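G., the chain you wanted modeled:
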Amino acid sequence: QVQLVESGGGLVQPGGSLRLSCAASGFTFSAAPMTWYGRTPGKERELVAFISSDGRTTNYADSVKGRFTISRDNAKNTVYLQMNSLKPEDTAVYYCRWGMRWGQGTQVTVSS
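Predicted structure as tokens:
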């Protein structure tokens, strides 16, 4: 049974940092490209970051380039999203995705 469990969200002030984690199980994680998406109220989920199965290739939405970093630990079956210099417009529910499978999401709120 495929499971993706996100954690690490919360309330943070503008300029702050958070690290999201997505623990994966039920599939061969080391062979799986992974992505993080964000969804703001009233909008569809949007791609935030991508990482290849071996971690050598990453891509980011223009809005987060230079601030967010996606990484993975294949020994721990976990993908991370390090979020720095957070802005109020980063407020969203963040989801990790493998293929057509989604986690439940973790809320990130950036507010003073």
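DSSP finds no helices and eleven strands in the chain.

Shout if anything looks off.
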